[in-house]
Amino acid sequence: MITLPAGSWWDWDVWSWRPGELRLAAGYDLGYHHGLELVFADPLYVRCPGSFQDPVFRPPTPEERWLVERQCGEEPGVLVAFEADGGGAEPVSGLIAAGGVEVRVGTVLRHLPAPRPADDPNGKSAGRTASSPR
Fold this sequence. Notes:
- By secondary structure, the chain is mainly beta.
- Helices cover 8% and strands 48% of the residues.
- It starts with 10 loop residues before the first strand and ends in a 25-residue tail after the last strand.
């Protein structure tokens, strides 16, 4: 079962999913940044909404274990189950089987800083010389 560090982790989403890695991100305002990631290595089975709130992690049921072992042909290194608010009338169940999982804490910005304009509003060039600080 997953143990999360103390923090405001009520908003969650799938931050990235590429071959060999699934990242779930959490925070209190995912519009700007997140502060927690669950990084699943070698995901074998994933049943997870794209975004959800307030997950409650729990031990997988025997039926969930059987489903994953039948689908994957092996027992996974880690099996994570949870119930969460998916925005509907009923809670959604999540189930993730993977080779391993890592809990990462740290601020990750979800936007890039605005580019600096080449010219100022008065029409003067904002060009820099080699000795100008950036």
